[in-house]
Amino acid sequence: MQKLTQRQEMVLQYIQSSIVDRGYPPTLREIGNFMGIRSTNGVNDHLRALERKGYLTREDMKSRALRPTQQGNAVTGANGNGANGHSREHSDVANDNMIEIPIIGRVAAGALTDAFETREDTVRIDRMLVGGVRDVFGLRVKGESMIKAGIHDGDYVFVKKQLEARKGEIIVALVGDEATCKYYYPESDRIRLVPANDRMTDIIISKDDWRSTQIMGVVVGIYRRLN
Question: Does the structure show a pLDDT above 60 at 87?
Answer without folding.
Answer: no
